[in-house]
From TrEMBL:
Pfam families attached to this UniProt entry: Pho86
Transmembrane helix keyword on record: yes
Transmembrane segments: 60-79, 99-120
Source organism, top-level taxon: Eukaryota
Keyword terms, alphabetized: Membrane, Transmembrane, Transmembrane helix
Protein name: Inorganic phosphate transporter PHO86
Length: 343
């Protein structure tokens, strides 16, 4: 295996390294880094999901209802024996220790919501841990990443073709010689026709400490440019000469609580296509139940947690007229050049 460039998400970027910012296609030595960044995306989702559930309006509403009901139960006797609000207030103040039981009630309510959040968000931890599985790698990259990572400089023609076919479908941003962001695309050839080409962004992630920078938009733009190139490769393989008016459909999944990604997609003209309450798209729908009491789908619906598919449709023009294709050739083919500061 080629020596891999390590990415430790628990350690800060090396400040001694030169402050260079560049982009790179997926090289064999960057295979592990790309997979690590994709796994980090689901770890980040786990944290976001927990916060979303705890502060969800239905969680807050549930806690308030329980609190009001329990307080009403505790105060009922005082209301019955009181002849005025003043007397009621005096009784409550003189017997305030009777209401100390409200705290165990609140703790129990918080625990129930926290437990539900843990079991729901743990789905994303499981995805992150399972990314090394062949079917997960295939779903993201569309090829055998382990085999790709073993390619050396002494390539056979077959290895060269394998690398050229897959290397540009993942693009990484590298800062101070450390990969900090990645986007990966996968052509959906089985769903495509001569007039409708489908491609999916199967992974997009920026390290948490760099998320305030506009790297996510840059990755989306990179994916759009690469999509136009992939469409051209598709029509060349099909020997289609006139592509004017053909549609390039770019798809991406975003979870309902991932508001930052949804905002980025909306800003880049992506529109919602469908919702799915099965959060793990690597596996088929299942009928598992939370604590063997209620189906996960019902819990997802209650908290409005869904995997939403967004889409962007581009209208292609013939090669000599398509500005997107010309831009992609200038941008994607200039590998390892410093990325300009975005304004």
């Amino acid at each position: 295996m080629v020596k891999q460039k390590k990415v430790d998400l628990n350690e800060p970027i090396d400040e001694k390294a030169k402050p260079t910012l560049s982009k790179s296609e997926l090289k064999p030595e960057l295979s592990e880094a790309a997979l690590t960044l994709h796994g980090d995306y689901y770890r980040q989702l786990q944290s976001k999901c927990n916060r979303y559930i705890f502060w969800h309006t239905r969680s807050i509403g549930l806690m308030m209802v329980i609190l009001v009901c329990y307080l009403s139960y505790l105060m009922y006797d005082y209301v019955i024996i009181s002849d005025s609000i003043r007397e009621f207030t005096k009784l409550v103040l003189n017997n305030k220790f009777d209401f100390i039981n409200i705290f165990p009630c609140l703790i129990l309510t918080f625990s129930c919501i926290g437990t539900a959040g843990y079991f729901i968000s743990d789905e994303f931890r499981g995805i992150s841990d399972d990314l090394l599985k062949p079917n997960y790698i295939e779903e993201i990259f569309g090829f055998d990443l382990k085999k790709y990572s073993k390619l050396t400089n002494a390539k056979t023609p077959k290895e060269t073709k394998f690398k050229l076919t897959n290397s540009k479908n993942s693009q990484l941003i590298i800062y101070r010689d450390s990969p900090i962001a990645v986007v990966t695309l996968k052509p959906l050839i089985e769903n495509s026709t001569e007039s409708n080409f489908f491609i999916k962004i199967t992974g997009l992630n920026v390290r948490k400490v760099f998320q305030k920078v506009d790297f996510d938009t840059l990755l989306i733009e990179t994916a759009i440019l690469r999509s136009r190139e992939l469409f051209q490769e598709y029509v060349d393989g099909k020997k289609i000469k006139d592509v004017d008016g053909c549609k390039i459909n770019i798809l991406i999944d975003a979870y309902s609580f991932d508001t930052d990604l949804i905002k980025t997609l909306t800003k880049n003209s992506f529109g919602l296509i469908k919702k799915d309450y099965n959060l793990n798209f690597f596996q088929a729908n299942n009928d598992d139940k939370l604590l063997k009491l209620v189906s996960y789908k019902s819990v997802h619906q209650f908290f409005e947690i869904s995997k939403n598919t967004y889409g962007l449709t581009l209208l292609a023009k013939n090669e000599d007229q398509d500005l997107i294709l010309k831009t992609s050739k200038n941008y994607l083919n200039n590998d390892d050049q410093s990325t300009k500061k975005r304004r």
